[in-house]
Design brief:
This protein is α/β, with parallel strands linked by helices and 361 residues long. It is built from 13 helices and 10 strands. The N terminus is likely disordered.
Length: 361
């Protein structure tokens, strides 16, 4: 079995919280303090003086969560046009806060969190085809043989045509896919729920989403039903990875009740806004991934190298798509793994840090 270097990595999850359902992502008084604690990790902000603690909270203060719709639209346009970017808008403000609070101890290497979309592949209805289990196994072997930990976004059903809302046919996991998932668990892979069947409810590429437009009850049933499939297999899913990186703003609260971490991407900006990552929003950590860390392995490595030059000791959420990496028979992925040089963090470490920061403030 591949992946000996990943053995023994433990996954974390929690049962749904019993607190009353929140309105549309209402502000939680301690969100900024929790986010500051996650930014300072592994330093304990409680040991810092008041001035240092204030500096750590600065990047997360004085803004609505989420911003108003006009602001979100403006942010999405600014991202598209390059006026809001990873380095200037996220890395630099977060590192200014760390350095103001921690001094020289703030510097270091980035802590790279690798998320992989998705298994089974959305185009894998024919599991013996080019996006089937055999090809995914080759992808996993590259990461596992290099000892690189990652989170895999998984779905319990596969649509016949995931981009056509009129095609409702889907299938459940086949035996080979179940066997592969169980092997991944033994190899230490952490899992994130990637919806139910990854089928878009809309034809427009700008609106593609499995969840947008669903009622709260329908969204809950879809999420809980999908999660039960994996619970019955003994596969924990402490993280939510939205198909197409889209869900309604009003659905965040029900996700935050169920998952330790809610992921996002460039498409999420119009729905949730553009902000620091990771950051606490309500009862969960919101962890969007943005270019250049959202892209091919080569693009992500360029971003990681730049963070290393800046001595930016931050959580660096990378999103890879194994289907994209298959285009060159995983050669780019192999180069990515060879150059990581120990900068990859494991997800249990991040989930533990998030759990520790929950008590802050």
């Amino acid at each position: 079995m591949v992946g000996g270097a990943l053995q023994g990595v433990r996954a974390y999850s929690r049962a749904p919280l019993s607190a009353a359902t929140y309105a549309i992502m209402p502000p939680v008084k301690s969100d900024d303090a929790r986010s500051a604690a996650l930014l300072a990790w592994p330093e304990d902000p409680a040991r810092l003086d008041a001035g240092a603690a204030k500096e750590l909270r600065r990047p997360f203060r004085s803004r609505a969560t989420p911003p108003s719709l006009p602001v979100r639209i403006a942010q999405a346009l600014a991202v598209k046009r390059g006026r809001l970017g990873w380095e200037a808008s996220i890395v630099e403000p977060l590192m200014r806060a760390r350095r103001a609070a921690l001094g020289a101890a703030a510097n270091g290497r980035p802590r790279v969190l690798i998320r992989v979309d998705e298994f089974p592949h959305a185009r894998g209805f024919d599991s013996s085809g080019p996006f089937g289990t055999d090809r995914f196994r080759r992808f996993h072997a590259v990461l596992a043989d290099a000892g690189v930990p990652y989170l895999l976004a998984i779905s319990p059903r596969v649509s016949r045509d995931y981009l056509d809302p009129r095609v409702v046919e889907s299938r459940g996991l086949d035996d080979a896919e179940v066997e592969q998932l169980l092997e991944l668990r033994r190899d230490g892979v952490v899992f994130g729920l990637h919806g139910c069947d990854h089928r878009s409810r809309y034809t427009s590429p700008r609106r593609r989403s499995e969840f947008c437009g669903l009622s709260q009850d329908a969204a809950e049933r879809r999420i809980d039903g999908a999660r039960k499939v994996f619970d019955d297999l003994g596969l924990e899913t402490p993280v939510f990875v939205p198909p197409f990186n889209r869900f309604d703003t009003s659905q965040y609260a029900l996700l935050a009740k169920r998952f330790e971490v809610v992921c996002g991407g460039p498409e999420s900006v119009r729905l949730l806004g553009f902000g620091a990552t990771p950051e606490w929003r309500g009862e969960s950590v919101y962890l969007p991934s943005y270019p250049p860390l959202y892209g091919t392995a080569a693009e992500a490595m360029a971003g990681i190298e730049r963070m290393t030059e800046l001595e930016a000791a931050l959580w660096a959420p990378v999103t890879l798509h194994w289907g994209w990496e298959a285009k060159d028979d995983f050669d780019g992925l192999r180069r990515f793994c060879a150059r990581l040089d120990g900068r990859a963090a494991n997800w249990p470490e991040f989930l533990a840090a998030a759990g520790s920061s929950r008590a802050a403030g």
